[in-house]
Design a protein that fits this description.
The chain contains three helices and no strands. By secondary structure, it is mainly alpha-helical.
């Protein structure tokens, strides 16, 4: 029963990684990397590493996602029109 859940998580991991790499908008890329990190945390929990999954969720999905969004909003766009 556990391998079915892991397979679904692996498929969503692959999809979120592809979207994060191919998208042009930086904010969408940050959101997708945060989703990727949260899915990795879920994968750790399903494999039995609860402490590693919790740490990944807090640091990987939480803190770094917020920091990336703050950095994106602190920058400005320069267009060459």
């Amino acid at each position: 029963m556990n391998w079915e859940l892991e397979l679904v998580i692996y498929i969503f991991l692959l999809l979120s990684a592809i979207v994060a790499l191919e998208v042009k908008d930086l904010l969408v890329a940050v959101v997708m990397t945060t989703v990727f990190s949260f899915l990795v945390a879920l994968l750790f929990v399903t494999m039995g590493a609860i402490d590693v999954g919790f740490t990944e969720a807090v640091i990987g999905a939480g803190v770094s996602g917020i920091l990336y969004v703050v950095v994106i909003y602190q920058t400005t766009r320069h267009s060459k029109d």
